[in-house]
Write a structure and sequence with these properties.
Elements: E1 2-7, E2 11-17, E3 23-30, E4 42-43, H1 45-62, H2 64-68, E5 72-77, E6 83-85, E7 95-96, H3 104-111, H4 114-120, H5 129-139, H6 141-146, E8 149-151, H7 153-162, E9 166-168, H8 169-172, E10 178-179, E11 184-185, H9 187-192, E12 202-204, E13 209-212, H10 215-220, E14 228-230, E15 233-234, H11 235-242, E16 251-255, E17 259-265, E18 277-280, E19 287-293, H12 297-307, H13 311-317, E20 329-331, E21 349-351
Parallel strand pairs: 1-5, 5-14, 5-15, 9-12
Antiparallel strand pairs: 1-2, 2-3, 4-7, 6-8, 10-11, 13-14, 16-17, 17-19, 18-19, 20-21
Length: about 350
């Protein structure tokens, strides 16, 4: 038996599968996103742990024999978030998420340093991890001075599961600190942004073993044997593995909180000037490229929240038959945009509204 844990932006999903990959049970637990200021997007990392534990204990209650047979756990999750820990692994501030655009100025400053595109293989977008640390250094120097480790969201769950500071190549590629083609932390990029290798988690491939489940958690979940934790992958890298997008030019489209068009590569082929991302895949000797819009289904979530209805109810209004679009348009830039505009300040709008529209 295996557990898969996907740490999303709006909630965590935990699946229990057998050795053949058949899904036996699924549990979802939601948690909030805070937007305390324009362009800000934050979460409390403890919410992730609480939600994940609730989901797993629910699986234990309904499938105790199957849970007792779990041998390995895989992790995937939202990218780029900055979980800042002190020397005792205590969280110093809320996690700054992937769709937070407050660090636009800091991102532009780092992007102007040629090494970031050369080694990091990407434009330094405001949502990447490195500019977030630059922002914290400038605006919260007391917090920055206490930072001992920077973890990505799913890797904070890994710390809870194993006690180890580890990330995989695909998630590390979205920090702007990784030498993407050589699959290692770049001393130069870290130094340019006031960081050092000691602040980084250890690196592993997604298909490798990253640690073992802590005995206390295993006991709580009714498991007696050793449980390994896989390196795992960033959300889109994991989705690529799940859909078989591994070899050159295979691809998929994903519409979640963000929207993604992704293509697998068998070699590292950066094209930073296009605003297309080039990241390490979750498998060794593979990479992928993708274009990203920051708000896909998140636009529907936003509208549903403002209208006091559920996203499902609004979707049902569209019916089952597709019709031609009207002249009215919605520009989906609720959180700025990455591909192709790379503009943290751009915002959403309804345009071409007419008195005849209803």
């Amino acid at each position: 038996m295996y557990l898969g844990i996907d740490l999303g932006t709006s909630g965590v999903r935990v699946i229990l599968t057998d050795s053949g990959g058949d899904i036996l049970a699924v549990r979802d637990q939601a948690y909030p996103v805070a937007h305390p200021h324009r362009g800000w997007s934050e979460q409390n990392p403890q919410d992730w742990i609480d939600a994940t534990e609730q989901a797993i204990l629910s699986l234990k209650a309904s499938k105790p024999r199957e849970m007792a047979a779990v041998e390995a756990i895989g992790l995937s999750g939202q990218m780029h978030g900055a979980v800042l820990l002190d020397s005792n692994d205590q969280v110093l501030r809320p996690c700054i998420l992937w769709n937070d655009t407050r660090a636009a100025k800091e991102a532009a400053e780092l992007d102007a340093i040629p090494a970031f595109r050369k080694l990091g293989a990407n434009i330094v977008f405001p949502g990447f991890t490195a500019p977030k640390l630059q922002w914290v250094a400038a605006h919260e120097p007391g917090v920055f001075s206490e930072v001992a480790k920077v973890l990505l969201p799913k890797d904070y769950l890994r710390l809870w599961l194993t006690g180890d500071h580890v990330t995989d190549m695909s998630d590390a590629a979205g920090t702007a600190w990784l030498d993407v083609c050589n699959r290692d932390w770049s001393e130069e990029l870290l130094e340019q942004s006031g960081m050092a290798r000691q602040h980084m988690p250890d690196l592993t491939e997604g298909s490798a073993v990253s640690g073992q489940l802590r005995q206390k958690l295993a006991q709580d979940w009714g498991i007696s044997q050793t449980v390994i934790i896989a390196g795992g992958g960033a959300d889109n890298a994991a989705a690529a593995c799940g859909t078989g997008v591994i070899d050159e030019s295979q691809g998929f489209v994903s519409l979640g909180t963000s929207g993604v068009l992704l293509v697998a590569r068998e070699s590292c082929q950066p094209a930073a000037e296009t605003a297309v991302h080039t990241f390490c895949h979750a498998l060794p000797e593979r990479w992928f490229q993708m274009g990203v819009i920051l708000a896909a289904t998140d636009c529907l979530n936003w509208l549903a929240g403002n209208l006091g209805q559920s996203p499902d109810a609004l979707s049902a209004l569209a019916g089952d038959t597709l019709g031609l679009p009207s002249g009215a348009m919605f520009l989906p830039y609720l959180s700025g945009e990455r591909t192709p505009h790379n503009d943290a300040g751009i915002r959403a709008a309804f345009i071409n509204l007419d008195i005849a529209h209803d």
